[in-house]
Structures are given as structure tokens and as C-alpha cells.
Amino acid sequence: MVPMLLRPCKALQLPRADWIFERRQLALCNGFHRTRSALIFSYPDEVKNKIHETLVLAMDHDAAMTRKSFAPLKKTPVKVSKKRDIHEFLDNAQDGAIYFSLGSNLQTDQLPAGPLTALCNALGSLKQRVLWKHNGNMAIHATNIKFVKWVPQQAVLAHPKVIAYMMQGGLQSLQEAVHYAVPVVAIPFFGDQYFNARKILDAGIGLTLNIDTITENSVVQTLTEIVKNKTYLNNIKTMSAIVQDELVKPIDRAAWHVEHVLKFPNSRHLRYHGHDMSWIHYYATYLCLGTGLILLLYIYYILYDKIVSPFVKITCLSNLKQWINNLKRKLD
What pLDDT is attached to residue 74? Predict the structure, then answer.
């Protein structure tokens, strides 16, 4: 049973990953479009009118990430021998090695002092060796930790001594971890990293930590669970085998789609239908008009209740009093 402290509150607040994907597919396509969601980055105005997107390639896979997307382009592994010191460090890891990296957008020296100290103390107390991608100076120097500014990541993940990967939950890093069957511990910070962390928990290929509540004890417990419980390793091995067992290689499939579009440049069967959405639907004009009408009715109600209604009541009372007075005069 995994302690609840190993799982972040932010990730647990999300529903299951497949439920999220069915309702808002977050396919980051070629760095320009999230074509299946409402987040669409704009081209410059002078270019926008001349562009007719026909094909967008998304680096994703049915088994590892989602169920209706393009398979990732597999990359040729790089030999660790290009970094001799890393190669020797991993080879001599008798109890295995843990690879720690937060990607290229976030460096560990940007972390708050509390979480950074907790990570250093926790990783330094392990019997496994730790390869830590860190671009800066670290005051704590544990004998089992090696700090490096740059890492040949795929080569490190392919090394047989690497038994766990601590990462930020980035999509491409997660794909590489799945490809090389290395269980993961995700520490999400922003963007789709929380969604990917939820997918990691759903697939049973790793655990997650919350950077806001991370402690030395939680890090040690999480890594101990990942290393000792072979369920995570078995799950990610199965997923890796599924990802690599394909009739057509992803690079060949991508090449075929590109050539297919070039062969039929005026065809629209691969075109994203949302691109042809009318401005009425794009800006939800009917919703704006409906909201405006309701607002006007509300304002009319407030004005009538506060101004018109009292004035009408005063006028009616004044007329009633005048009529009663005239009636009294006639009776007299």
C-alpha cells in the first residue's frame, strides 16, 4: 500500500487521464497548434490568410499517452561513452542508479531552499548512486551524487544500471522513459505536467511528488517504493513492449503522411474541421447576445424596482387621495 503522502494533492484533484482526454484532447502539435483543444496559437496576420493546414504530426502514442494520436518518432540511442565520466559512474553503481533531471526549462537551482535541501538530503542518504542534472553550484556534496550540467538523456535511460528516473513530468521525457522501460517519479510544476503525472498514476508506471509539500522522508519513501516494488517496473516494461511493437515504424508513417499531403495538396480529408469554423461559432456570438439580453433584463428590473416602481406608487396614491377628497366634497 503506497502512503498517501507520496501522491500530490494537485494530481489527485484531476479525474482519470482518459476522462480528461475524451473531453479536451491536449495534443501539442508541432510546436504551433493544440488543434484538438481551444488553445490555438495565432500566426502573424499577413501569413494567417495564406495558410491552409492539412496535416499536423503529434508526437504521441496510443498506449503510453492517449488513444487517438500519432505515434512518437523513435530516436537512435546515443552511447554513454561520449561522456566517459558518466559512463564509469553508472557502470560502478552496484545497487543501481537514479537519474534526476527537471528538463531544460527548469533548473534545480531555481527551486526554493526547503524543497532543494530535502531533495539533496534524501538523495544523498540512498545507497543507490544518483546522476543529477544540475546547472550551478551545490553546497551539499554527497558521495553517491554526481552533478552534471548536460546529460545524454536517452543513453542514460538505456543504461542497465538506471532503475528510476525523477523528472518534471514533461511529455517527451515521459515518452523516453516508457521507451527504455525506466519507472518514473514525477514532480510536476506547470502546464501539461500535472496531466502527465495523473497518467503516470493511472498506468501504474511510477509515483508523483508535490513540490509544495515535499520532504526528505517522502522522497526516500517514494524512491524506495519504486525500487523495491517491481509492479512499476513490470508495468512500464509491458507498456514499452506495446509501444515498440508496431506494424509500421512511426518515422515511416510520418513520411507517408507528408508525402500523401504533397501528392494531394488540394484535398481536405485530413484538414482540422475547427479551422473552418464560422466567426459566429468561434466567438460564441449567440452566447454573448444571450448574456447581454439577460443583463439588460436584470438592469431593467433593478431600475424598475428602485426608481419606476416607487414613482408609480406615489403617483397612484396621490391620485387616490385626490379622488377621495373630490368625493367628500360632493357628498358635503
Answer: 46
